[in-house]
Amino acid sequence: MRKPKDFDTELKALADKAKAIKERRVRQLGELVAATGADALDADLLAGALLGAVAMKDAATREGWRKVGAAFFQSKARQPAPRSEQQPEGAHPLQSGAASR
Length: 101
Fold this sequence. Notes:
mainly alpha; 3 helices
């Protein structure tokens, strides 16, 4: 007679693996945001751009974006997209009315 399987242990192992995969996905998305230079964008602007991309139904536009993304991953240097506001890395814009010290 065969030994019965411990289904609880197998389910826990699968749940742990699923959690690790989700954590890795979130980390990779964060790395992608930083690698593209999108970390310089305001969170509201980035969220709006992503929501617009998700809602985009035009196949030609989506295909154009896909090609640009594929080229980004295939490039050796992986240069981020040009920033509209050139700020040094790590610099934060001053709030209105705040003086630099």
